[in-house]
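Operator note (shift B, R.M.): manual run for Enoyl-CoA hydratase requested after the automated queue skipped it. Running by hand, logging everything below so the morning shift can see what happened. Input copied straight from the record, untouched. If output looks odd, do not overwrite the archive copy; leave it for review.
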Amino acid sequence: MSDSVTYTVTDGVATITLNRPDAMNSLDTPTKVLLRDTVQAAAEDTAVRVVVLTGTGRAFCVGQDLKEHIGLLEANDTAALWSTVPDHYAPIALALADMPKPVIAAVNGVAAGAGASMAFACDFRVVADTAGFNLAFTGIALSCDTGISWTLPRLIGHAKAVELLYFPRTIPAAEALDLGLATSVVPAADLSSVTAELATKLAHGPTVAYGAVRQSLGYSATHTLAESLVYEAGKMQQTGDTEDHHNAVASFVAKEKPTFNGR
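Run finished. Output pasted below as returned.
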């Protein structure tokens, strides 16, 4: 069993950690398979109320392992080269973006290529002040993947997304915050504690409502207003039937602070 991705669950917070520090948490095939399966498992685990994605060492994730990629190019193994996008990268992006609970990227170091894409699929990006983003795809004459064509324009607009994808460079944390790529920037030494505070707050919140909101936002991005209104109505009914909603209304009437159990 590979330890290139680790997974822990504590008090409703699942932490998924990319653990190839010597390779800048780059993604070889075993790591991609394990990451895909781990993210999907976290999405389906009802005991998990918030997911944190992070890395060990100097990098969050620098995307595809280029040593592996070069080997496949030299072997002319086109099946393995390009099947990885639908088999690995796309399912990872979809699981991060669609799961019915909040997701935090704790960006401990550089996030490049698919690493940046994964961070952008999360709800929150808590970024160390020593970290940065690099949308590296065209730097090696490739298109973009892992959902960045969908997430990036929605974060910073179409024109800026084109610029950053055409002309990749390392975007430092402060600029990432100004652009809207980072939700917050914190001293590197405080990344763990700040992330834990946010994760704990979310883990004690109305999990089903959070999931419904993030799914409604995703749905509306590719549907008409009329279709989105119908979708919203369904999500209102879903959340209205939850224990959390009924308890919250009773707490409001009693002028008490509600307790949410995520169901």
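Quick read of the result: The first strand starts at residue 5 and ends at 10. The chain has eleven helices and ten strands.
Leaving this for review. - R.M.
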